[in-house]
Amino acid sequence: MKLSIIGAGNVGATTAFIAALKSSELGIDEIVLVDIVEKIPQGKALDLNQCVTVFNLDVKIVGSNSYADTENSDVVVITAGLPRKPGMSRDDLIDKNAGIVKGVVENIMKFSDHPWIIIVTNPLDAMVYVASSCVLEKRGKDAADKVIGMAGTLDSARMRFFLAEELGEGKEAIEALTIGSHGDEMVPLMSSATANQKSLSKVMNDKKMKEIVDRTKKGGAEIVDLLGTSAYYAPAAAIVEIIEAIDTEKIVPVSVNYRGVFIGVPVKLSDGTVEIQQNMLDSMNSEEKKMFDDCIEKVKSLIDKTEEILKNK
Ligand code: APR
Questions:
Q1: How far apart are CA 254 and CA 264, in angstroms?
Q2: Is 70 touching ligand 1 by the criterion CB < 6 Å?
Q3: Could you confirm whether 114 is annotated as catalytic?
């Protein structure tokens, strides 16, 4: 598999690092890191090539400022764009990042026909819309269907961590999914979450569950406040989790076209198609359904705003 990562900053380079360490398991033989800034991707690639030599891994890492190096990629991850600073919401990035993501996708399309494209740049769901519309225009529906957004795998990991910590359980004992938008309106699915296969309502009181829902929703901001920039270790791992899920039966929450917007839903990624797990959405309780409907409305207005911004670019 050839993996290209656009944006060799914190999230992009950390994704390359984790993917390189898991390269034999994932069948990755080449990783290309592209950035607009000169020397940085080349420097990080050289460092990473020396890193994988320590473990004798047969993966080649290329750093570049040219999209020609991404030719025939199987998977492209887009992290190019600005991250949040303290006090900013993800939506505050829309103006700058919409143009960046559009330009990046146009360049990718010149060299790869039907890659999986995993969007990471925020505001996530609006950026998936930008990338998907661009691919639809240039390559048609089948290619556009392979544009997906990474958020739910990250938000779910945050939720699982908070639950495991609170319950004093191993992380593998906790199953939990977060869907909806990648923002304060996201929907951590408490009704179907389990600890050691037991429903959470049996092991945790309502107040605690509500606190964990709130902390999950603000999980990104908590790290921005501490670091002064947005998180990258867990986002990078959550990107690799999606790459790992491609062509397997594993269900992952990703942002895709659903009910006319782009929003996080549980899917399987097999044979180049996205299979939405509608049964899991149908099993939400009424409170979660309402939160999910609110998300759809919020993303709709964000997409309208994005369309306006793109018209003026
Ligand atoms: N083409 C290629 N690379 C670009 C472009 C572009 N047009 N514009 C910016 N970049 C690069 C920057 O040079 C930088 O190296 O994108 C990289 C972004 O890296 P960071 O600033 O470290 O940001 P990071 O924390 O990685 O976040 C990137 O992912 O999680 C989201 O909200 C986050 O939108 C942000 C994105």
A1: 5
A2: no
A3: no
